[in-house]
Amino acid sequence: MSFARFLRYSTTIGIGGYSAYVLQQNNWDARNIGIVRFGRAAWIVGQVSVDYKFSVSELTDDSEETCEKWSQCHLRSAQRLLKLCSQNGGVFIKVGQHIAALDYLVPKEYVDTLKVLHSRGPRTDLIDIEKVIKEETGKEVNQLFDNFDPEPLGAASLAQVHKATLKTTGETVAVKVQHPNVLRHSVVDMATMEFLFTVVSKIFPSFNFLWLAAETRRNLPFELDFYNEGKNSETMAGILAKFPWLKVPKIYWNLTSKRTLVMEYAEGNFVSDREYFIKAKIDTAELCNRIEQMYSEMIFLSGTVHCDPHPGNILVKKNGRDFNIVLLDHGLLTRLTDEFRETYCCMWMAVLNGNEPEIIRCAKKMGIDLGKEHYAQLLSCMITAKPWSAVKRGLANVPDEKTRNAEVGYDHFLMPLETDHEFLPEFSQKDELRKNASRYFGDISKILATVDRQLLLLMKTNDLIRSIAFTLGNDERRSFLTMTKACYSMLQQKKARESGNSLVKLALQMQSQWFFFKIWVYSLYLWLTWTGPSRKMVA
Q1: CB of 86 within 8 A of CB of 119?
Q2: Total domain count for the chain?
Q3: Can 308 be counted among the known catalytic residues?
């Protein structure tokens, strides 16, 4: 046999053998191979880029026809990204969920299309789930559990959860198991995303999503480590122990590893299930109040924040005449520095009181010093999801009926058109989203790329909380009161720590009591005058 023929045969055998190995590692599914996943992502992102370049990039006017063309392009692009996320799964779904949570920062077509990713995660076959459990524990499923429900309770981007019964104690537990290929694919997927986002940002400077790729790369290792999630659960249970109505499921450490998490099984309905609350006569105003108390405690007082409060992670269960809240999925916690918490607290007090100089000062401390004053105004609108007219007036100041009707609503996000602080014209909520989310996306991208990293997850968290409140029909004024109390407490505690004078501390304590009494009186007024859905449910 000639050397050339030997080389040809050996090369063919080598390539064939390696291809078989790669296929075996990907469960004999060619669609899961890294180069295939990269090619799929590159093709779809290329389609999106070409569509924007040749369909709408030259359209800059505000005519109805132009808005419609932009809307259709956004919709086509969102549908392509949904297809990509669904096919590639894992990290891609995680990024799609993040985009879907940015209701007031990206065009509504993306939010409406991608939000299905919160409830439409990929499902892994039971045989593969059992394989992961054996790899992590060294035992078969039937050696650990008397009963293991083959139908998952829920499936998400990184894992799925099954109900089971422990063989040793007979306790009912929830078993969270990581999808088999997620960890292996994550390295290639992150490199793919960073490369494609870099290319897109070079072609379209206004579409800079590199901050999203950077945040995903930073947070993903924590979310893929279920042992870390278990430790986070215990941390959060300790922080929120003051609330008797809150439950964080306990962890069974002997069965927990990096890819499996066994926890106490907790029953309840999703926090978005209004029909259940009507039947159970649960006061949704009080439900929203408790959720906001939880998150105000995390953000303003403890500094450790659960950053994924979408409806699937918050359960509600009737308990006699009361109800309990169950907080799940602690894979992603952010720990805020004291300096950032103080700045963020001051920012909220500034927007509540309409203190524009303080808003600008806080924005600069958060990294927004881009040479234009309106970036600080825009940041305050992004944080609050409110129009600049409302922020400038002060969210704590009660507007007249006409002004309140113009500003109320979760989706009503009006941004400053000019730096001379002129109020925007009043549009419908849908029209305003369509115009402003696209029109100011370049400025929004700059802010997201430069702002303090701690704020990125907080904005996502705040928006998910607002979405829950909007779904339940809560009066947003009560939300502002809850945050005001937490902000005020944090600032007063800081003053007390810095003061070495007992008389000053006593004065601060009396000042706080008087402030909280006024808050209580106003809360009572809101309860007596509120006629929203939550009051009707318990009437």
Answers
A1: no
A2: 2
A3: yes
SS3 for 88?
A: helix
> What would the pLDDT profile of 64-119 be if each residue is shown by its tens digit?
888 888 889 989 999 999 998 888 888 888 888 888 877 767 778 888 898 888 77
User: Is residue 510 domain-resident?
Assistant: yes
Of 174, 191, 221, the residue that ends a domain is 221
Question: Exposed (0-12), middle (13-18) or buried (19+): which is 96, by Cβ within 10 Å?
Answer: buried
**Residue range(s) defining the domain that contains residue 39:** 25-122+183-221
Please indicate, yes or no, if residue 243 is contained in any of the structural domains: no
CB crowding 495-518: b at 16 or more within 10 Å, else e: ebeeeeeeeeeeebeeebeeeeee
**Among the options 189, 273, 308, 329, which is catalytic?**
308
Half-sphere exposure of 334 (CA within 13 A, CB side): 25
* Termini Cα distance of the chain: 92
**What is the mean pLDDT of the segment spanning 401-425?**
43
Answer whether 436's CB lies under 8 Å from 427's CB: no
Interhelix angle 374-384/453-472, nearest 10 degrees: 50
| Single residue among 192, 221, 250 that ends a domain in this structure | 221
Q: Between residues 326 and 472, which one has the greater pLDDT?
A: 326
Spell out the residues 6+ positions from residue 315 whose beta carbon is closer than 8 angstroms to its own: 266, 267, 268, 269, 270, 271, 325, 326, 328
432: pLDDT strictly greater than 80: no
- Grade residue 401 by pLDDT with cuts at 50, 70 and 90: low
Q: DSSP characters for 98-127?
A: HHHT-TTTS-HHHHHHHGGGGT------HH
Q: Distance between CA 260 and CA 263 in Å, rounded?
A: 10
Residue 426, amino acid: E
Structure letter (DSSP) for residue 216? H
Q: Residue 323 has which token pair?
A: 């109800």
